[in-house]
Write a structure and sequence with these properties.
Number of strands: 16
CATH topology of the largest domain: ABC transporter transmembrane region fold
Distance between the termini: 46 Å
Largest sheet: 6 strands, mixed
Number of helices: 24
Strand order of the largest sheet: 12-13-14-9-15-16
Helix content: 55-70%
Shape: rod-shaped
Length: about 700
């Protein structure tokens, strides 16, 4: 996450490329497709439950709370008009027992043409008196017997009484008469509670399945990404800062998890909910639905504008956060230098400027959200007001039931939540897409040192190292090595010296096969290094570098590095041979001593001896020392020189050194200059020549 700048920000990816990334990402979800499909199914059920809640309210109000009937005076219709009426609306009517009168349920009025309904009301064919229907199963004859003249009996045995008459009864009688409505409301309430409980249980299951799938997907991607990073050549790590690589494996993958958890299923649910709301509104009353849809172009236009502004705000905020991270990483690492030269105030002022830019970017993002959310609430309130104004008139004219109006208001308020969610999730998706691109960019990187299909290795490795006509360049325009050829015999100690930039370390890197030469080949026991498996090659060639890296953990783990073939006896043997056993035994816990990250509890010399023991633990046939004594004190250097002399009789040793005292006793010394071997021989032979090696010695002694 530190040092992470210069990458593609959110929103810079095109839609076609987004689709390709999603297609590649879907491959990681494929093994968990059953879980994903189950989560989708649960999402659909949850959405259906949410859609049902306002409709249940409508049922409770229209069917039970405000249940009413009206009398239709068909006698007022003349001639063919009565016949046409019966053809169109006869199926909606219920006749009285004596077949002299017709009645219609309030819920069926919506099925009448609005023009006909207005006409029937004007002509008083549809009476305005509200009637209440009492089912034939309700035993209330004793209550009604005194008011028998005001009661209409239907052909199915049920009775209709005016609401005025109903309201004149005592409350206990009203409850007895309306027992079916009370039970209906109770049933709807129970169903509503069950729906909420089911939605809660299903939401838990959906969330668990999404997290289960998301975490497994992220685990798979993280493992594959780290595996790919480990397989890359050294050249790859020279081009990519550590902070960038860490960000890929942590933050970027977490962005993917956020997208899968918060976007993939949630957006699907939001779209399904929007479609469901629109369908239900059209079903309830398509005229009122079309009136409420007048606001949709403004809502979607506002959402699109918000998405654009929010994307820019997020991009600016991420850029300033990256600058803060880079600044802090550099300054904290160099805190000793800052304090040494008393530059705390200068650095504080510089950090304050960057921090202020981050504050401004954060406030810009807050302003976008602070405007969008209230405006969406304003649109929501305006939509509700529009529905109350238009729908209220329809309720008054009996063209819409009160329950439908209440349901409309509930659905409209519900309609705005998924729109807000989708607009917010859009930015999460853009961020995740940018992270996905960066992850797959690393996965597609092919800077690997390939293993041969059919590795070749001698039955017994002797350690003869041969360089034949080696040429190499990190950049084609600037070659580092020019036609290098030499051989290090088994058991021989060869030193390589030369001025800085002469190509010594590059030669060592080729021997370890961190790189492959552009021309020529390197051989171990007569076999081209390209034909060795990398694991077998590096088991037989160990390298001790100038900069020692110590992992967090105990001392023994830092020597074995998790290799199963290295037991306690091998650890002690390697430490003894590296002259490190004496200081290890002085530690309170010996090989189990926790040395902390970076090995800061050890001195530079002790860390160097530890790296020596690490190189010797696998008992390699070839040992390469790259400036291994440059950072140690004379006493530690003496111990290392003693260790080198002990190993030289049993191993092939290649030494790169600035301190020429370290290599005086080498069997042969190679002198490099501008990427070429210009001299070779023993110390005495090279000194007698009086050329490059002689001058290097004179410079060291001054």
């Amino acid at each position: 996450m530190f040092g992470e700048y210069g990458y593609m920000e959110e929103g810079q990816l095109g839609k076609p490329y987004n689709f390709k990334l999603l297609k590649r990402l879907s491959k990681y979800a494929f093994p968990y497709r059953k879980t994903v499909l189950t989560a989708l199914f649960l999402t659909i059920l949850i959405t259906l439950f949410e859609l049902a809640i306002p409709y249940l309210t409508k049922i409770a109000i229209d069917r039970y709370v405000l249940s009413s009937w009206y009398r239709m005076d068909i006698g007022g219709l003349k001639g063919s008009e009565a016949k046409d009426f019966m053809q169109k609306y006869g199926h909606l009517l219920r006749k009285s027992k004596d077949r002299s009168q017709c009645f219609i349920d309030n819920l069926d009025l919506k099925n009448l043409d609005p023009a006909d309904l207005h006409d029937y009301k004007t002509r008083k064919i549809l009476t305005s008196e509200r009637l209440y229907r009492i089912g034939s199963e309700v035993g209330v004859e004793s209550i009604l017997e005194k008011k028998i003249k005001a009661i209409h009996e239907l052909d199915d045995g049920s009775k209709l009484i005016p609401y005025e008459l109903l309201n004149s009864f005592p409350k206990k009688d009203i409850l007895k008469i309306r027992i079916a409505d009370v039970q209906g409301v109770a049933l709807v309430s129970l169903i509503l509670i069950l729906f909420l409980v089911f939605a809660f249980v299903l939401s838990f299951g959906e969330y668990y399945l999404l997290e289960f799938t998301g975490q497994h997907m992220m685990q798979d991607i993280r493992l594959k990404l780290f595996r790919r990073m480990q397989s890359q050549a050294v050249r790859f790590f020279e081009r990519h800062p550590v902070g960038r690589l860490v960000t890929r494996v942590t933050n970027d993958i977490e962005n993917l998890n956020e997208m899968f958890r918060s976007v993939f299923i949630t957006v699907f649910k939001d779209f399904f909910l929007l479609i469901g709301i629109l369908a239900v509104l059209l079903y309830l009353n398509w005229r009122l639905a079309l009136v409420s849809f007048v606001l949709l172009p403004f809502i979607f236009g506002l959402t699109l504008l918000f998405s654009t502004l929010a994307r820019e705000a997020f991009r600016e905020l991420r850029a300033t956060v990256a600058k803060i991270n880079a600044f802090l990483q550099e300054r904290i690492t160099g805190m000793r230098v800052i304090q040494l030269f008393a530059r705390e105030k200068f650095q504080m002022d510089a950090f304050a400027r960057i921090n202020h830019k981050n504050y401004l970017a954060g406030m810009k993002q807050i302003r976008v959200f602070a405007i969008f959310m209230p405006v969406m609430e304003l649109f929501s309130s305006f939509a509700v007001a529009l529905i109350i104004w238009y729908g209220g008139g329809k309720v008054i004219s009996d063209q819409l039931s009160l329950g439908s109006l209440v349901a409309f208001i509930g659905y409209i308020q519900m309609f705005f939540k998924p729109i807000r969610d989708i607009s917010e999730k859009y930015n999460i998706m853009q961020s995740a897409m940018a992270s996905t691109e960066r992850i797959f960019e690393f996965m597609d990187s092919k800077e690997e040192i390939p293993d041969p299909e059919h590795p070749v290795a001698p039955a017994k490795v002797k350690g003869r190292l041969t360089f034949k006509h080696i040429s190499f360049a990190y950049e084609k325009a600037n070659p580092v090595l020019h036609d290098i050829s030499f051989e290090v015999k088994s058991g021989e100690t060869v030193a390589i010296v030369g001025a800085t930039g002469s190509g010594k370390t590059t030669l060592v890197s080729l021997a370890e096969r961190f790189y492959d030469p552009d021309e020529g080949a390197v051989f171990l026991d007569g076999v081209d290094l390209k034909k060795w498996s990398k694991s077998e090659l590096r088991k037989n060639i160990s390298l001790v570098m100038q900069d020692v890296f110590i992992f967090s953990g105990n001392l023994g783990e830092n020597i074995s590095l998790g290799r199963k073939d290295i037991d306690v006896r091998s650890l002690e043997s390697a430490a003894r041979e590296a002259n490190a056993l004496s200081f290890i035994k002085r530690l309170p816990n010996g090989f189990q001593q926790d040395i902390g990250e970076g090995g800061y509890t050890l001195s530079a010399g002790e860390r160097q001896l530890l790296s020596f023991a690490r190189a010797l633990a696998a008992n390699p046939r070839v040992l390469i020392l790259d400036e291994a004594t440059s950072n140690v004190d004379p006493e530690t250097e003496r111990l290392i020189q003693k260790a080198i002399s002990q190993m030289a009789a049993r191993r092939t040793t290649l030494i790169v050194a600035h301190r020429l005292s370290t290599i005086r006793n080498a069997d042969r010394i190679l002198v490099m200059h501008h990427g070429r071997i210009v001299e070779q021989g023993t110390h005495e032979e090279l000194m007698s020549l009086g050329h490059v090696y002689y001058k290097l010695n004179m410079l060291r002694e001054k």
